[in-house]
């Protein structure tokens, strides 16, 4: 009579476990690539937003009167956060698509 351990040690079960480990490794790598790409995009977006925001507060009377430091920080951080999430999501999806088509 076969016990439960025989099924766990079968070649099919080991291949399935190996396949799952490989898929998990690909998913982790995909998410890491997304985080790195998102962080880079957030830094670029923050700098690209900070320069015109701070310049406009110094040069335009309307901006000087209406954009206090909190509003300036909110503008910059909102753009940086949006850039992070958009680029990270697109990177993860592109990597997952590439990995799914690369599988036999």
Count every beta strand, where a strand is a DSSP E run of 2 or more residues.
0
Share of residues in helices = over 70%
Rg over alpha carbons = 24 Å
Mean pLDDT: 86
Q: How many helices does DSSP assign?
A: 4
Structural features, described:
The protein is mainly α and 104 residues long. The chain has one domain (30-102). The protein has 4 helices and no strands. The two termini are 37 Å apart. The model has no long low-confidence stretch (mean pLDDT 86).
Features:
mainly alpha
SSE layout and pairings?
Layout: H1 4-8, H2 11-59, H3 61-66, H4 69-102
Please outline what is shown here.
The chain has helices spanning 4-8, 11-59, 61-66, 69-102. By secondary structure, the chain is mainly α.
């Amino acid at each position: 009579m076969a016990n439960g351990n025989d099924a766990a040690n079968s070649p099919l079960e080991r291949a399935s476990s190996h396949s799952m480990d490989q898929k998990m490794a690909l998913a982790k790598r995909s998410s890491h690539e997304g985080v790195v790409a998102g962080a880079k995009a957030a830094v670029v977006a923050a700098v690209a937003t900070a320069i015109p925001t701070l310049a406009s507060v110094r040069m335009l009377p309307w901006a000087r009167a209406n954009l206090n430091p909190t509003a300036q920080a909110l503008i910059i951080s909102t753009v940086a956060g949006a850039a992070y999430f958009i680029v990270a999501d697109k990177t993860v999806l592109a990597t997952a698509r590439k990995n799914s088509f690369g599988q036999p």
